[in-house]
Amino acid sequence: MAAPGGSGPIGPFPQRVGDDAEAQADYDKIRRRLLWTFPSGLYVIGSRAGDRRNGMTANWVTQVSFEPKLVGVGIEKPALTHELISAGGSFTVCTIAREDRTIVRKFTKPVDVDDAASTLNGFPFHDGVTGAPILDQAPAYVDCEVRQAVEVGNHTFFIGEVVDCGFQGAEDTEVLRMEDTRMSYGG
Ligand SMILES: Cc1cc2nc3c(=O)[nH]c(=O)nc-3n(C[C@H](O)[C@H](O)[C@H](O)COP(=O)(O)O)c2cc1C
């Protein structure tokens, strides 16, 4: 995972902060904490290229157009998921039930895939229409074909069109949000 918030105080700094290194570091910390207050959901992103599959915890996920139906995911460049989405041209977004919150800790590094048992780190999955994996226990998923890959600093924002979706659990299942955990990302 990339260093949280970056590798050190990152500019630009407003004029009022000036050139003092300590003031810049303080500003950097406040900006990080502020960005962490932006509400977000927590998801598992499924990706696949050929026979290689992965699942990854992510919170930078949002719908970006309703005609066509486009969903964007911000993926850090060193991630295996980045490689698989780039090569495979698709991804899935799986919502997580609030009561399954411990799952997200299991998807923060490349997963163990058991092809015979169809499991990712022991969690059963099936392939979506794009071929990317969907966790069986996800209350809902969207399956997307990549339409654009936008370079954004140390991430790529993959924009995908929803080519399939479904509820796998009750529609009113409470889904996981960042504030349900003690975790954070970015900032
Ligand atoms: C709470 C949380 C949220 C995360 N959100 C994202 C995200 O939105 N985008 C991203 O690229 N990585 C995110 N990560 C980091 C990835 O889960 C992590 O870097 C993972 O190692 C990369 O996965 P991969 O190499 O298995 O593809 C998040 C991590 C945590 C703990």
Structure commentary:
- 13% of the residues lie in helices and 39% in strands.
- By secondary structure, the chain is mainly β.
- It has a 7-stranded antiparallel β-sheet with strand order 2-1-5-10-11-4-3, covered by helices on one side. Strands 6-7-8-9 form a 4-stranded antiparallel β-sheet, with no helix packed on it.
- β7 (119-120) and β8 (123-127) form a beta hairpin.
- The chain has 2 helices and 11 strands.
- The model has no long low-confidence stretch (mean pLDDT 96).
- The radius of gyration is 18 Å and the shape is globular.
- The structure holds flavin mononucleotide (FMN).
- The site of flavin mononucleotide has 19 residues, from β2, β4 and α2.
Fold blueprint:
Layout lengths: L20 H16 L6 E7 L2 E7 L2 E6 L2 E8 L3 H9 L1 E6 L17 E2 L4 E2 L2 E5 L5 E3 L4 E13 L2 E13 L20
Antiparallel strand pairs: 1-2, 1-5, 3-4, 4-11, 5-10, 6-7, 7-8, 8-9, 10-11
Bound molecules: flavin mononucleotide (FMN).
Flavin mononucleotide binds next to strand 2, strand 4 and helix 2.
